[in-house]
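Table S2 (continued). Query chain:
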Amino acid sequence: MKQCYFSENNVKLIDYKDTDIIKKFLNPHSRMIAGEHTGVCSKHQRQLANAVKRARFMALLPFVSK
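Corresponding output:
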């Protein structure tokens, strides 16, 4: 079982402006990868989902990419 990336690196808050980290958890079509595959715990998966939604709304991340 994988360790949670955010717990390992002592990340307290997942910031929507930090798109480099958020992009690690998106597939090539800009869809979120499930927590079972990435190893992210459920608490951080929820924070990550909110960060992705905010980043998309602020046009920092695309909603869909080819």
